Amino acid sequence: MTPHIEAKKSEIAKTVLMPGDPLRAKYIAENFLQDYKLVNKVRNIYAYTGKYKGKEITVMASGMGIPSMGIYAYELYKVYEVENIIRIGSCGGYSDSLDLFDTILVDKSYTESNFAYTFNEEKCNISSATEKINNIIEKTAKDSNIKYVKGNVLCSDCFDLYIPKLNELLARLPRDLNIIAAEMESFVLFYLANLLNKQAACLLTVVDIPTKKNQISSEEREKNLNNMIELALESSLNM
């Protein structure tokens, strides 16, 4: 056990799906897993372990933001010896070609956060998903006829809908990265996976598009992201 996770080591699977929202973890367990068990409820960060088509899977919330994901990803990798983490979250779309509910497979994550410097005295602002996992996800999407967009994202310390000078933020993002969306956790997940010789990926569903002033409700965020969830679960069968 750790200060944040009460599960026994044997109760956490080698592959973990991580939504941000604890209620989304509960929804996934109840609707997609068999013989599932609640193995963590410390701070109401729910974790459930069960079986998906015979394979043991853990679904655990990460909470919101880089610090929260950093704590849980580190403990899962380092203490529980988890091998693969797939973040399954929501994002804001920055590309006019995106629509609500589009699924994004993240390649690279850019941040203005100083997490890497604070954690490891490393000046690092870009981290990448594990190519092996991304290849599995892309093949699974093709085989399952699930549409997705692959691209780079901003991992922000701020919820973008509240940023008063969003245009200034967008203007200073590296143009060569062609950032198509923003979320708040992927950078640190990728960074720790690379640092600890583990594997990580991130699938996102577009839930708001600031430039189009489109967004979905909190209930829709919790329950209507099934394409992304199914893609992550099907991909996990090959890990």
Which H/E pattern describes the elements? EHEEEHEEHEHEHEHEEHH
Question: What is the fold named in CATH at topology level?
Answer: Rossmann fold
Oligomeric assembly? single chain
How far apart are the first and last residues' alpha carbons, in Å? 25 Å
Shape label:
globular
Helix content: 25-40%
What's the architecture in CATH terms?
3-Layer(aba) Sandwich
- CATH class, named Alpha Beta
| Tally of strands | 11
Strand order of the largest sheet: 5-9-8-6-10
List low-confidence stretches.
Answer: none
Radius of gyration: 17 Å
Category from helices, strands and their pairing: alpha/beta
What is the total number of structural domains?
1
Mean pLDDT: 94
Q: In CATH, what is the homologous superfamily?
A: Nucleoside phosphorylase domain
SSE topology:
Blueprint: E1 15-18, H1 22-32, E2 34-40, E3 47-52, E4 55-60, H2 66-78, E5 84-93, E6 103-111, H3 115-120, E7 126-128, H4 131-144, E8 149-155, H5 166-172, E9 179-183, H6 186-195, E10 199-209, E11 214-215, H7 218-223, H8 226-236
Parallel strand pairs: 1-4, 1-5, 5-10, 6-8, 8-9
Antiparallel strand pairs: 2-3, 3-4, 5-9, 6-7, 6-10, 10-11
Helix pairs in contact: 2-6, 4-8
